[in-house]
Specification:
The chain is of the alpha+beta class. Helices cover 25% and strands 19% of the residues. The protein is built from 14 helices and 18 strands. Strands 2, 5, 6, 7, 8, 12, 13, 14, 15, 16, 17 and 18 form a twelve-stranded mixed beta sheet that branches. The longest helix is centred in the middle third of the chain and has 21 residues. The chain is globular. It binds a DNA duplex (22 and 22 nucleotides) through strand 3, helix 4, helix 5 and helix 6.
DNA sequence: TCTGCTTTCACATTTGAAATGA
DNA sequence: ATCATTTCAAATGTGAAAGCAG
């Protein structure tokens, strides 16, 4: 956390609208914990898969975090984006993931803006913050502001916290970025690992209809013999899964590595080492000759050097929590938080966190963030969706002393972070007429730092 | 053309919010 | 104004079929 003291706003003095305060000191005290860590771990152990569809699909488990250490009266913006774990495309082969080649070109990267943003620190800290409405899509022409991913590629969410009165101020602000290793996942259009399917059905209330054995039998009996055969095969597979408890190698090794360092809070370097291992679950495959031009992992960590590996839950990583200067967060037990005990267990703690914000005058200023420079990638269709914004982040590579994700003028030369998106019109009523500048929002698909030649 | 992998679509079921009525 | 009930859109995994590449 020491490095965080180096945080400083960039690009000259912040606007007066920005809350004054000991930014650098307080930002260093920000703590972020993942809710339902046990549930996430359950998925991660098997190799989390997230369905992506053209209309957009919610994540399950969805991202839900607790924040602490914010200045109660200062305003913050919360963002989530998805970054590739590596430069590979994968395939599911005989119950495990294998590298299937080089990753496809990065789709236009979008950043999901929490609908409550900006809100005071007290607001973010009073209850858990849910990103329930975040949707993933494989439609590169998506105009709803969903996060665009490639199927059969691996990603992990990043949480960004920016102290800023409004999105206009963000360009002078400093990002703090948090990642949770256990939230990494493979984007798929159909589930590959039947164990993951079972886990989703067991814990997602919307899939309750698939839990009841009798109902399932009824459904199955109506299918063709070939279908039944397939079902039997799948059942067999899932039995084997549960029997052998043999998740793909990457998961097991990942968590072995994670568990294996009990006792010491790892220093920064060690953390990065762990990350690398966790994000290189198929190291064996790579060693066997799979190579790509895109340097995976390490590079983007160099670039986003404020990215913090958030400690694992106390249940299996107590020493890290300790390092954050507070007792283990009272993370709900798996049973109480996701055991399917009803609706309350899902959203009761933050039922309204992800609801539509009041798009008052100040929030409409978000559009003033303006378009960043155009990137070299093929352009998606025009992003007329008013909730999608482009923003940019200074490229920190080669500036070892610089800590933080500094936003820069949208017309500057650096790389954009991505497009901001808030829940789209399918979820919420349309906003008031969008700022004209937004029509340029399609202009700058985000280029991964490790993608640039 | 064949095969296998991936994606898309319609479907049944459940959830949850809005609308309606007492 | 409050509460209970109804209605309906959204969310979910399933399985068949289509699309696509080798």
């Amino acid at each position: 956390m020491q490095s965080i003291r180096d945080l400083k706003p960039n690009f000259g003095p912040p606007p007066q609208s920005m809350a004054a305060g000991p930014d650098t000191y307080m930002q260093g005290n920000i703590r972020l914990t993942l809710e339902d860590p046990d549930l996430w771990k359950s998925f991660h152990d098997l190799g989390t898969e997230m369905i992506i569809t053209k209309p957009g699909r919610r994540m399950f488990p969805h991202c839900k975090i607790n924040l602490a250490g914010l200045i109660p009266c200062a305003k913050y913006i919360l963002l989530v984006d998805m970054v590739p774990v590596d430069g590979f495309r994968y395939k599911w082969n005989k119950e495990k993931w294998e590298v299937a080649g080089k990753a496809e070109p990065q789709p236009p990267c979008r950043t999901y803006l929490h609908p409550d943003s900006p809100a005071p620190g007290s607001h973010w800290m009073k209850q858990s913050v849910s990103f329930l409405k975040l949707k993933l899509t494989n439609n590169t022409l998506d105009q709803h502001g969903h996060i665009i991913l490639h199927s059969m590629h691996r990603y992990h969410p990043r949480f960004h916290i920016v102290q800023a009165d409004d999105l206009f101020s963000v360009r002078w602000s400093v990002f703090q970025t948090f990642t949770f290793p256990e939230t990494s996942f493979t984007a798929v259009t159909a589930y590959q690992n039947t164990s993951i399917t079972k886990l989703k059905i067991d814990h997602n209330p919307f899939a309750k209809g698939f839990r009841d054995e009798s109902t399932n039998k009824k459904r199955r009996s109506s299918k063709s013999p070939a279908c039944q055969e397939k079902r039997a095969k799948m059942s067999d597979m899932s039995n084997r899964d549960s029997k052998e408890d043999s998740p793909p190698d990457f998961c097991r090794s990942a968590y072995e590595a994670y568990d294996g360092e009990e006792g010491d809070m790892p220093k920064r370097k060690e953390v990065e080492g762990i990350k690398q291992e966790r994000y290189s679950p198929w190291a064996a495959d790579r060693e066997h000759g799979v190579r790509t031009e895109s340097p995976p992992g390490a590079d983007h960590r160099d670039v986003y050097n404020t990215e913090q590996l958030v400690p694992a839950p106390a249940s299996y990583q107590p020493q890290r929590v300790h390092d954050f200067g507070k007792p283990p967060s009272p993370s709900p037990s798996v049973g109480s938080s996701h055991s399917g005990s009803g609706r309350s267990s899902f959203e009761s703690r933050a039922p309204d966190v992800a609801t539509v914000p009041d798009h008052d005058a100040s929030k409409l200023r978000t559009h003033e963030v303006g378009p960043p420079p155009c990137g070299p990638q093929p352009l998606p269709a025009p992003q007329d969706y008013p909730g999608v914004l482009n923003m940019s982040v200074a490229h920190q590579a080669g500036k070892p002393g610089m800590i933080g994700h500094h936003l820069y003028s949208p017309y500057g030369p650096e790389q954009p972070l991505g497009q901001w998106s808030t829940p789209g019109p399918t979820q919420y009523p349309p906003r008031s007429p969008p700022d004209r500048r937004l029509h340029n929002a399609h202009c700058a698909p985000w280029i991964s730092p490790w993608q640039r030649g």
